[in-house]
Amino acid sequence: MELSTATLLLLALALTSLAWLLAGAQRGRSGGRRLPPGPRPLPLLGNLLQLDTKHMIQSLTALAARYGPVFMVHLGSQPIVVLCGYRTVKEALVDQAEVFAGRGDLPVVYRFTQGNGIAFSNGDKWRVLRRFAMQTLRGFGMGKRSLEAPIQEEARCLVGELNGTQAAPFDPTFLLGCAVSNVICSVVFGERFEYTDHGFLAFLGVMNQNFLLLSSVWGQLYNLFPGLLRWLPGPHNRIFANFEQLRRFVAKQVERHRLALDPNFPQDFIDCFLLRMEQEKQDPQSHFHMETLVMTTHNLFFAGTESTSTTLRYGLLILMKYPEIQAKVHEEIDRVIGQDRRPSVEDRSCMPYTDAVIHEIQRFSDIIPLGIPHAVTCDTVFQGYLLPKGTNVMPVLGTVLKDPTQFRNPGAFDPSHFLDERGGFQRHDAFMAFSAGKRICLGEALARMELFLFFTTLLQRFVFKPLCHPEQIDLTPQVSGLGNLPPPYKCCAVPR
Q1: pLDDT of 260-272, one tens digit each?
Q2: Do 295 and 117 contact (CB within 8 A), yes or no?
Q3: Which residues contact 459 (CB under 8 A, 6 or more apart)?
Q4: Is 84 annotated as a binding residue?
């Protein structure tokens, strides 16, 4: 008897479902060790029905309450082990740093990077590129006092731009983005851009849009079903058009550097990379080639601009909601720095309240809540569960920064989380805003310096006021996915 096409399709689906269920029954044991528990996935959909893509953190936290701090979910057909809470994430990323040092799959980004660059490479390529980047960036002042002067100068330029608003309402997004991006520009490109440069503004606009799209439902859906969404129309396609625009901008800068390169006097990161490319051009195993340079430069820009500028933007919104906290920062600035000199990194040790506020802004805003996926580099047993080599791991940093066992009032904005009983600044091991372990943010030292100098310079000169009553300000993220982005707003920078 000949079967109809519909019948064959139904039969195939039934067999697929049966195979999936049998695999699920077997996945609980492997070599005498259990894989982590988790909700049973559906064929093709995985655990999509148990996950709210608009509120992923809440979904994962609910699953952790049911299955424990180590559990497995299927994002589409991709299994991933989720780690929640400070103790579990620390045990993985810090105590077993080498084992969890791999970079996991993130299809929406891999389609662009193809495993090139620092952030999304693995193995020897990652180790070589990271070591080179750290040494080179340190040579140009990353994390050192020598980079303080360029940040101070950029902060001065930003103050000039804010003075130009004449206390009228404005959107701080581009001004903050320009200031922060110019700092990384000075290290990578060897120059800064004017805030009116149309090419520079377009570059920042594309980066802002991509961070929003990557964090949106569409960005998350692409990671769930890359094979399907690759061929479907939708806002997710804008991500890849933007990536290509960013690549062309960076490639143009690289070509300009190549033509003007003086081998005896490298001026910036790109020059140093080009020289290394020349040195290793005969080595077929070299990781230094043009595509890696473009992707590495893009990684540095994206990480060095978006996270810090978004933190500043979220921070100003938080301080407007809590004007009494803003007033206490103003008081400490006036007492320690005054109005006649510009803030310095040395001032931080004398300003515990301001330092605590900045740390609490980072903790509360939780800019990268899900972290970037990791992968285990070898078969390992973790908290009694077997994790085979290559297993994708998601350390949910948001559950660390808001772990109730580590912070008294994790859901509230409370600078006392970082103050001791005498009002001194108190470091906290659970502060993982820059992640932790081998994959900790390469630019942590720079970001810490920028946040302190930009915040103190701005609050030395201005009172930031909202266009509504402070109690009406909603701090709920505009989108929450790869990143937590603050809701769009305008404010007034009133000179003090």
Answers
A1: 999 999 988 999 9
A2: yes
A3: 319, 326, 329, 330, 333
A4: no
31 in a structural domain: no
Residue type, position 283, single letter? D
Measured in whole angstroms, the distance separating CA 455 from the mean position of its chain's CA atoms is 20
How far is it, in rounded angstroms, from Cα 168 to Cα 149? 29
pLDDT at 131: 93
Q: Report pLDDT for 144.
A: 65
Mean pLDDT across the stretch 357-369? 96
* CA–CA dist 420, 428 (Å, integer): 11
**Domain-located, residue 209:** yes
Closest by alpha carbon to 301, among 137, 106, 126, 123?
137
Tell me the CATH number at 337: 1.10.630.10
Tell me the CA distances in angstroms from 100 to 52, 89, 381, one per residue in order. Answer: 27, 10, 12
The count of residues in the chain is: 496
- Give pLDDT tens digits for 253-305: 899 999 999 999 998 899 999 999 999 999 999 999 998 998 998 888 888 88
SS3 468: coil
C-alpha–C-alpha distance, residues 53 and 51, integer Å: 6
Instruction: Give a yes or no: residue 133 inside a domain.
Output: yes
Q: Examine residue 169 and state whether it is found in any structural domain, yes or no.
A: yes
* Number of structural domains the chain divides into: 1
Q: By mean pLDDT, which of 8-17, 178-187, 362-371 is the weakest?
A: 8-17
Q: Report the 10 Å Cβ neighbour count for 143.
A: 17
List the domain range (segments joined by +) for residue 431: 124-370+399-495
pLDDT over 90 at 461, yes or no: yes
